[in-house]
Write the structure tokens for this entry.
Amino acid sequence: MNQELDFVNPEQGHIVIRNRPRCRHCGEPTELRHGKPWNENGNEGRPYYICLCVLQKAFSCFGDMRGVLMENPTCFCDRGMQISRHGIQNPEPGMPWSLRPIFYTCATGGCSFYEPMTDCDRKLVLNCGPISASSLSLRGF
Ligand SMILES: [Zn+2]
Ligand SMILES: [Zn+2]
């Protein structure tokens, strides 16, 4: 069972993001965008921050509390909220679209923390449930 932060709604704005986070690459404030209605990763309408400085788009972080759970590992940020966010990655090359690795990343775009979720045998944990905003949110993503 996922342990939600019981004082927050996953859809609400992240509790420590007050201003647009600064880009980790160039230091400039990121831009707020929203997931397109046709997003296939369950992120339709979801707020996120991005900078256009490198590779045309340097993703910073999502702006909400989805996937930010007490049980998640802490990121490298030394201030703000250090509880990371888990998410679902695109499938590895050659893997079916339905099997996707689960990973943790910085929830507020402040650091480069990234860690795949592994089981007790250190094998990657794969998501195999449906991918839509409502189903993901119910499962803590
Ligand atoms: Zn930048
Ligand atoms: Zn961080």
User: Anything to note?
Assistant: The chain has a mean pLDDT of 88. The chain has one domain: 30-139. Residues 133-138 form the longest helix (6 residues).
